Amino acid sequence: MLSRDSVLDSAPDQPPQTPKPAVLAAWGLMSAALIMALLLHLLSALLAGLLVYELVGLMAPPIARHLPGERSRYVAVLLLGALSIGGISFAVLGLVAFFHSDVGSLSVLLAKLANITDGARAVVPASISAYLPADASAIEQGISAWLRVHGAALQLAGTELGRFIVRVLLGMVIGAMLAIKVSESDAPVRPLAHALYERVSRLHLSFSRIVRAQVRIASINTAITSVYLLLVLPLVGVHLPLTKTMITLTFIAGLLPVIGNLISNTIILIISLSHSLGVALASLIFLLLIHKLEYFLNARIVGGKIHAKAWELLVAMLIMEAAFGIAGLVAAPIYYAWLKDELRAQGWI
Fold it and tell me: In whole angstroms, what separates CA 163 from the centre of its chain?
């Protein structure tokens, strides 16, 4: 791919250039590919491939000190694969252990829900209290009825989850293959091939910038969440279970723009609800504030990385979300960073 310096050195104040036909064709093909990735629900595969390519690029130089040549990239891919398999295996084993433990057993969870319902009945109006289940048995019957009604939707969601996992895995494999085979010396010489090579290189650079900014955002979110879980709640006598696990998940999920924050927030809210309704409401208020803060952080930190004003990025996220939903919201910073870098390289902005 293009070296980072060659892209970063594109002077923003250079005279505007007239793109060659090959560059115009490459822009059209690249834009169509990026839009099709959203329309065909392949954004997960694209991001997974870019992430693996980026990680191999980061891991290869230290390994190359001991294994010169292309072998360093093979070793980096093998290490990354081993870490991925180990992480997935650890997560699966952790879930199995949780649901087989006393804390995660169905009977304990139903009893917790019954206690929460009793506590809620004491504070909510009578008109609302009448709709709350009477005991754990009523809760179990309600859950069973809901599952019967929404069984088809759950089956469809499971199918979509399976497709999502397959796309991510295929994207990771493609990214690993490109990381091994593609190097700067392999740059094509044909006009259109070279123009496409530059467009993909700029997309990779834009993704790299967004990832580095997202790591910083995730670190800030994790630090604030740690203060809430480890200091604020214990000060008022509340000690939630799985606190360290929630903090770890907050950082890992926070690496995903916007949607990752929703995932970690949902987990914290569910565990807070298992303690009491009051703690759940306090956590909900806290998480809403954090969610709004993330939009601001995303616009400021990511905008600084891609040389864009905060309002520019927010407008791009708003338009992409309206056009493509959550996938557009996730893709907006990367796509906008790529577009702005292309325009800067031509001296148009």
Answer: 17
Using alpha carbons, list the distances in angstroms from residue 168 to 129, 183, 233, 305, 335: 44, 23, 37, 26, 19
Query: Mean pLDDT, to the nearest integer, of 102-117?
Result: 62
Per-residue DSSP letter, 228:
I
What is the dihedral angle through the alpha carbons of 299, 302, 307, 308, rounded to the nearest 10 degrees? -20
Supply 48's token pair: 């997974």
> What's the total number of domains in the chain?
1
Assigned token pair, 73: 């990239």
What is the C-alpha to C-alpha distance for residues 114 and 140, in angstroms, rounded to an integer? 10
Which residues span the domain enclosing 238? 4-100+150-345
Which residue reads 């809620």 in tokens? 120
Cβ–Cβ under 8 Å, residues 55 and 178: no
Residues 6+ away with beta carbon under 8 Å from 217: 254, 294, 297, 298, 301, 302
* Residue written as token pair 């398999």: 85
Amino acid at 12: P
pLDDT at 312 over 70: yes
Cβ atoms of residues 264 and 253 within 8 Å? yes
The pTM for the full model equals 0.75
pLDDT tens digits for range 191-227 = 888 888 889 989 999 898 888 888 888 888 888 888 8
Q: How far apart are CA 101 and CA 111, in angstroms?
A: 15
192 is a domain residue: yes
Q: How far is CA 303 from CA 8, 50, 298, 299, 345, in A?
A: 15, 20, 7, 5, 18
- State which amino acid sits at residue 240: L
Cα–Cα–Cα angle for 278, 115, 135, rounded to 5 degrees: 135
The residue whose two tokens read 């290189």 is: 201
Cα gap 305→212, rounded to integer Å? 9
Nearest CA to 280 out of 266, 290, 294 is that of: 266
Does any domain span residue 128? no
Residue 137: inside a domain, yes or no?
no
What residues have CB less than 8 Å from 187, skipping those under 6 apart? Answer: 2, 194, 197
| Residue 340 within a domain | yes
Give the other-Cβ count within 10 Å of 261's Cβ. 24
Give the SS3 label for residue 331: helix
